[in-house]
Amino acid sequence: MPGHVEDTPDEGLMGAAAGAAGVQPAAVRLLLTILAGYPIAAFYTAYVAEAVPFKTLHHMFFFACGAGLCYLNYGVDTYHSLLGILVTYLLVRFLRHNIRLMIGLNVVFHMSYLLLGYLFTASNEYDILWTTPHCVLVLRMIGLGFDISDGLKAMGALSKEQKETALPQVPSLLELLAFAYFPSGFLVGPQFPLRRYQNFINGDFRQHEGNVEAGMRRLATGVFYLIVCQLGLSVLPDSYFLSSEFAEVGFIKRTFLLGFWAKFNLYKYVSCWLLTEGALIYIGFTYKGKDVHGQPDWSGCSNVKLILLETGNTMEHYIQSFNVNTNRWVGQYVYRRLKFLDNRTISYVAALGFLAVWHGFHSGYYMAFLMEYMIVSTEKQIARFYEHAILPQYGSILSRSDIYNVLYFVTLKSYNIVYMGWGLTPFVFLKYERWIVVFGAVNYFGFIYLIIWAVFYQTFGHFSGNDHGQ
């Protein structure tokens, strides 16, 4: 999240470690806070989970650990999150029978507070300060308001996912604090509902085995991605793409370099989510059910689908595999709550607009989500055209051609790499005067090819046997 880096008392030691790694001191603190989830999980498993029968003490443990870690990172700015939690508690406690007013006030308060935080702290870079965990908290508290309102409805009026998250009772303030500050979930996510936390505290997941081993495997995977990220960005730093040196490289090489750079930037998020998920698995929080082999599945809070991320060939594959829980949250609490509009396109645009606003004011966010919408829409149009106009005439010939199959794979994979670079550029560089430089350095190819396709599809799209919309 964007913001302004504030000085903290431990800048000496942290500064030295950060300088050696080539990152901000705040990034080192963030990483250490994520890793702290493992000893906390080990302590809880050994001395609290079975030994302490009172749920109140479990809530106190998680609140103290999480709030303490938050204070170590952001000092007195921890009050921002405390205030947000208190406001939501008061709203759901006293206004839950006036659903529209409660939800409206809850959403407006949290989004307004977050945006004001961005307004007073934003800079040109991705800085790490109190707005980093606060954007996670905002979704958690807004979701809680909806879950409380769902708990007042008849079960027959709820969807399957709403039944799994609905809250018939208002939680205590201590329980809400523990849920909001859960040590391995408050800083960078993932999103999860209060019902999961309650099931965990009730011991519903404790009889299942394999969580410690699965958690350590996720830890190792996260460390691997972190190393690859740091090595990749040391070779292709952000600053390189703003330089004249990059602009002088051959066009094709430029587009691929931008694509590989984007992949390394994604790995920053992937590594943090994997490390966080590992701690959640270790503590036994993420039980999902039995897998196809009848073994416990600990992927209930997975925020990235690694196989799809690494093998996918389209922008939609990236969306399906990246920041999974946030996308699921938006789907449940924004997209499907707009079902009354009876228009998927409007609901989808509204969901993307919400995500852009949630990220902040920088133009890069809005351009990035606009590009996501345009690229995904174009992919669907191309898929329809290929399925209805190309395959009926040439499918039998193409399927028997090894050369075609190789070209098909290479083309899709190249597109996947190249357009990821284009799509992520504004998200990373944030300011118009920065991301437009990178767009110009690659000759605005992303715009040009999308426009060429749009003209072609409007002219010949009728051959696909479908209308031109989504």
UniProtKB/TrEMBL annotation:
Pfam families: MBOAT (PF03062). It is found in: Endoplasmic reticulum; Membrane. One of its GO terms (molecular function) is 1-acylglycerophosphocholine O-acyltransferase activity. The chain crosses the membrane at residues 30-49, 56-74, 103-121, 215-236, 266-285, 346-368, 406-429, 436-456. Signal peptide: none annotated. InterPro entries: LPLAT_7/PORCN-like (IPR049941), MBOAT_fam (IPR004299). It is a multi-pass membrane protein. Keywords: Acyltransferase, Endoplasmic reticulum, Lipid biosynthesis, Lipid metabolism, Membrane, Phospholipid biosynthesis, Phospholipid metabolism, Transferase, Transmembrane, Transmembrane helix. Its main location: endoplasmic reticulum. Pathway: Lipid metabolism; phospholipid metabolism; Phospholipid metabolism. GO terms for biological process: lipid modification; phosphatidylcholine biosynthetic process. One of its GO terms (cellular component) is endoplasmic reticulum. Its EC number is 2.3.1.23, 2.3.1.n6. Belongs to the membrane-bound acyltransferase family. This is Lysophospholipid acyltransferase 5. It comes from Drosophila pseudoobscura pseudoobscura. The lineage of its organism: Eukaryota, Metazoa, Ecdysozoa, Arthropoda, Hexapoda.
